[in-house]
Amino acid sequence: MRKVITATEGYILTDGEIYGTEIYLADGVDGEAFYEITLEEYNAMLESGEATDADYRSALKKMGVRV
C-alpha cells in the first residue's frame, strides 16, 4: 500500500519537481522531501511557464504512474 501525503487547504505540496495536493509516494520516494507552497505561488509558477504539462508527466512517470 502506498503512503499518501496531503497538503493543507490552500497549499500545494512539492519537492521541486512533483506538485500536487495529494501525493501518492512511490517506493523509494521520501515524503520528507516535500514541502508546502501557497496556491498563489503555484499559480504564479504556472503563469510564468516554470512548470509545464511535460514536467507533470515526467514527475508522474518517476512516481510509477502510467500517463
Topology:
Blueprint: E1 3-6, E2 11-14, E3 19-20, E4 22-25, E5 35-38, H1 39-48, H2 53-62
Antiparallel strand pairs: 1-4, 2-3, 2-5
What is the structure about, briefly put?
The chain is of the alpha+beta class and 67 residues long. The protein has helices at 39-48, 53-62, and strands at residues 3-6, 11-14, 19-20, 22-25, 35-38.
Strand content: 25-35%
Helix amount, in percent?
Answer: 25-40%
Distance between the termini: 20 Å
What is the H-and-E element order? EEEEEHH
Strand line-up in the sheet with most strands:
3-2-5
> Which structural class is indicated by helix and strand composition?
alpha+beta
- The number of helices is 2
Main beta-sheet annotation: 3 strands, antiparallel
Shape: globular
State the total count of DSSP E strands: 5
Q: How would you classify the quaternary structure?
A: single chain
- Computed CA radius of gyration, to the nearest angstrom: 12 Å
- How confident overall, as mean pLDDT? 86
Give the uncertain stretches in residue-range form.
none
Can you tell me about this structure?
- This protein has 67 residues and is an alpha+beta fold.
- The strands form two sheets. It has a three-stranded antiparallel β-sheet. It has a two-stranded antiparallel ribbon with strand order 1-4.
- The protein has two helices and five strands; from the N terminus they run E-E-E-E-E-H-H.
- Strand 2 (11-14) and strand 3 (19-20) form a beta hairpin.
- It starts with a strand and ends in a 5-residue tail after the last helix.
